[in-house]
Request: fold
Amino acid sequence: MIYIMTIGLVLLLALGVPVGFSLGVAALFAYVESTAGNIVPSVVSRRLIYGLDNFLLLAIPLFILSAKIMNTAQITAKIFRFANSVVGFLPGGLGHANVVASLIFAGMSGAAVVDAAGLGQVELEAMEDGGYDKELAVGITAASSTIGPIFPPSLPMVVFGYMSGVSIGRLFLAGVVPGVMMTVILMVMVSYYAYKRDYPRLPFPSLIGLLKSFLDSLLPLLTPVILLGGIWTGFFTPTEAAGVAVFYALVIGIVVLRELGPKELAKVFLDTARETALIGFIVAAAGFYGWMLMRSGLTVQVASALLVISENPLVLLLVINILLLIVGCFLDPTVAILILTPLLMPAITRLGIDPVHFGVIMVLNLMIGLLTPPFGIVLFVMAQVSGLRFGSVVRSTAPFLAPLLAILILIVLVPELVLTLPEFVYGVLR
Reply:
């Protein structure tokens, strides 16, 4: 069973079979082998359904829908203009605005690809018009898009919480400090390039100009405040927060800004349904695959193998980090989380590593994978949005991997950076 599931999955993926089919077919062949051909079709169908039968998973299509509504309603442009008014006076102001806008938009979308495809178009156009090198603009935009899945709310955190049983509220809180750290270190990189290439900056903003920009963007800026405040105070769950985000985005887009008509809404709903169906099929197949993993005993064997390497938590985290960085080059983060979480959690639990800490480490690893060839999804998105060749996008993005890796190392070595905030907030709420 183990050979069929592991080698079969790798071969199917290498042959270009879609991920959902690869997971389902590999698990199905393993199930046939384990039952000696005496298959019960209802067992397979029930396992596929159980993979989707979780209230938490409703957050995924809802957050995707809210982000698409905001993109279509031109809310992202307002966010970028506000960010530019706040930090545009710094050397390389538009680059700083690019990073800060991604942090703000992170509180609304929670997905790197959505950030790169939606907000990225606005950022690239503004930076090119401002005299910035296109390659640098692409690199900054690609790197800053990874803030979204770390800073709450985060779709990969929802998936990890679903697979591991860890509190999503704690995971969201745990991503706040690393998300801010990523923002700061990317702004340091922007400053370096700005001084080196003498990029322009805006005049220092007047109080009236800053206030006007803030009021113009107030409703979109309230989105993360409403969502995160509601989750952390217990007013609504993360899934209900996603529903609130959709409702709020619709009110802004239809009633306030009047940018969404029947045609735009139809396209938004159709695109969301298409993406949700794809993700849903993968999650269902991964649920069946994960059940077969447990039946085969592979989860126990992987945990034992990792513990043979070392029982030092730091050494184990180092080994897992290397594994995740490699996996991130080839697999979509959602798929990687669905496959690897059941395999790695037993070893993490046995060594006493905090699962919230591990969740943030895992997601950040896989976000870095979005920027690495050969299959970094954000690289393909940026190539499409910018019109640059894939190789040029890779070269433009490569320098920004160093600061992201530095943040990864730092949060591995200093768990308090991740855990202090959730422990404080939940301690107060208790």
Summary: The chain is about 75% helix and 0% strand.
